[in-house]
Amino acid sequence: MTTATGASGGAPVGGWDVGSVAAELLRCEDERIERPPFTDEWPGLDLDTGYEIQDLNLRKRLERGERLVGVKLGLTSRAKQQRMGVHFPFVAWLTDAMILPVGDPVPQARLIHPRAEPELVFVMGDRLEGPGISCAQAMSAVESMWGGVEIIDSRYRDFRFTAGDVAADNASSAAFVTGPVGLPPTELDLALEAVLVEVDGVVVDSATGAAVQGHPGEALALAANDLARRGHAIEPGWIVLTGGMTDAVFAPPGASIAMHFTHLGSVFLNGGEAPTPCP
Amino acid sequence: MDAGTRTEAARQLLDAYKTGQPIAPLTSTHHGLSLEDAYAIQLLQIEELLAGGRTVKGHKVGLTSAAMQRLLGVDEPDFGHLLDDFFYLEHEPIPMDRFLQPRIEPEVAFVLKAPLRGPGVTVHEAIAAVDFALPALEIVDSRIADWKIGLLDTIADNASSGAVVLGSTPTPLHDIDLRLAGAVMTRNGTVVGTGAGGAVLGSPITSLVWLANTVGARGVTLEKGHVVLPGSLCAMVTVAPGDTVTARFSGLGSVTARFARN
Hints:
The complex is a heterodimer. By secondary structure, chain A is of the alpha+beta class. Chain A has a single domain, classed as Fumarylacetoacetate hydrolase, domain 2, CATH 3.90.850. Chain A has six helices and eleven strands. The radius of gyration of chain A is 18 Å and the shape is globular. Helices cover 27% and strands 29% of the residues of chain B. Chain B has helices at residues 3-19, 26-29, 35-51, 66-72, 123-129, 151-156, 204-216; strands at residues 56-62, 78-83, 87-88, 93-94, 103-112, 130-140, 161-166, 182-187, 190-196, 227-229, 237-238, 244-249, 253-259. Chain B is globular, with a radius of gyration of 17 Å. The relative contact order of chain B is 0.21. The interface between A and B is medium-sized, with 22 and 23 residues.
């Protein structure tokens, strides 16, 4: 084990440090391995350290040829925060390797325990650089709004983690698909844009954009302001996933999942085929 | 359950309204309580209230969401009666002393322009019988202690009815997608619930069809001019004295309930 970089997180415990946790998380992702949270062994893995690990893994992803296409927010709804016991949102990176084309099944072969959640999605027109960004300023930088589904997949067993663990794990990102309708931000009150979640033809949940920080534009402003703290801006052309509107539903092999939006169309997702068992 | 026991259970529930003291779940005190017993107990209370001068203004359907049905372990909704004194105006402070443990939920109310008589009512007949939809807030309440209800407890307790506030903007069904219409409920300015019409049995119209056919099987017709509350778009939340609750719907306007500070 290498020694800690020591910038944050306190003294490494159990042999873990920023570099080794980052490498282990990428290995878990590539090899479909689930594991206990690192904070079980390294309680000092706090939020800032988690983001340090996340940024290191972004650099590794770019080095291996992935392209940065945007950001996602995690845990922006009260339902999700309560379920996970973490009471603030996260920002994480999206690369082109996470894009799922419309009509493709859930890529079970590279996922551990995928869940799906409906999201309101922005494509950015202008650069957005915090701090101090408000909801109205953030929405003014949006080029178009879309419905979408994010497939999340924690590298932690049973989705058990602390804030530091989940920040390090790129906020459980795995894949995302966007819907068929894009509208300019002046067209809709996103707080009232609803989604109906159906699994195997049965409605299991519903929500509106107001479930996401009161308005998805607030989530976008939060992302811009949070990224500024880490030295980044949101760039033109980027995709922003604003966070699950409802609690995530399991997306097992064979499932038929549909997310119907009021004005932004429907996204259908097939659970795909069972992969070989996890090692 | 014999007639005397049913009457006694109905009496206990009516007394709970007057004393403000909830009772133990009937399912815990009356073993062998059946679905028929539960609806009979509800009807005995309604009959007594009608004898006292109240009138029926419509019906409500409860247990219509996947979450509530899972919670109570049922796969069917239930219904209750809406009486004339349940209805409050938007600007009128709703007295809290008529409730025991009130909660509130947003609904899309239907007003009927023709009678609906089941069984055998279909979706198109139900839609054709609706004059217009209204934004609504239903205040639900339970005369059962701590809301520890099973299906039969809530049926006997008039489907946990409390009060109703109707908004004032009618919308014909042609103008909205009932399934995908969104609602946001705020309490004192904070978002406390969101949902879509389809949270109600897949569509609020399905709820109306179920109600027409279910009461029809009991010889009851849904009358012209009556209001139907088909079920909530999201989970219910508690209300306290002085609260202001607003539900905003896409394509249906909004409705606000004010609660007195007493």
